[in-house]
Amino acid sequence: MPPLTLDQRIHKALELAVEFDGFCFRNVSQRFANRWDILSPEGSRITGGRYNFKGSFGVLYLACDLHTCLEETTQANKALGFDIARRLPRTIVGIKVKLSKVLDLTDKKTRRTIGVSKSVLTETDWRHIQNVRNQEAITQQIGRFAKESGFEAILVPSAQTKGKNLNVFPDNLLPSSRIEVVNEDELR
Question: Against a cut of 0.85, is the pTM above it?
Fold first, then answer.
C-alpha cells in the first residue's frame, strides 16, 4: 500500500481533534476596529497568510497571548517593509473562543501523524513562495487540507515567539462553537 498523502494524513488526524476553550487576541488597524469587521477573515482571503493561499478562503488569525499578538503584528509589518510607528494606532481585542474540532499542531504526536516538523510550520517562507513563485506553501496546503477535512481551526506554534496562534476557519464553525469579542459594545 502506498504511503498516505498529506491531505490523507490530515484527514486521519480528525481522530486527534481537540477542543479549545479560552481567550485569544486580535490586533487590527483602526479602519477595521468595528463590530462588523473585527472578526472578518476577508483580509487574509485577499492577501493570503501562513495557512491560506491568497484568493482561496479566509482564515481568522488569532494569537493565544498578548505578547504573541503584538509580535506577530510587528513582524508582519516589517516583512512588508512598513515602519510600525506609521501603522499606528491599532486596536487589540480579547476574544472568547470555544471550538470542539481543532487540529493541534503544537502537539508532537499530531505533527508526527501528519508528518510535519515544527520548523516547517515556523520557518517556511510562505510570502516568497506565494508572492514570487505564485505557488502554495506547505503551510498553506496544511491549512487548506485541515479546512477541507472539517477542522474548525488549527492551533500552531507562533513563528515569532514561543507562543501559539489559533487560526480559525469561520466557514467550518459548528453550531455549538463560539467566537465572541470581549467588550464588543466598546467598539464603534
Answer: yes
Give the torsion through C-alpha atoms of 72, 74, 76, 77, to 10 deg: 160
Domain count, the chain: 1
Q: What is the DSSP string of the chain?
A: -PPPPHHHHHHHGGGG-EEEEEEEEEEEEGGG-STTTTT--HHHHHH-BTTB-TTT---EEEESSHHHHHHHHHHHHHHTT--GGGG--EEEEEEEEEEEEEEETTSHHHHHHHT--HHHHHH--HHHHHHTS----HHHHHHHHHHHHT-SEEEEE-SSSSSEEEEE-GGG--TT-EEEETTGGG--
Residue 173 in domain: yes
Render pLDDT for 40-75 as a digit per residue (tens, 0 to 9).
999 999 999 999 999 999 999 999 999 999 998 888
Report if residue 111 sits inside a domain: yes
- In tens, the pLDDT along 14-44 reads 999 999 999 999 999 888 889 899 999 999 9
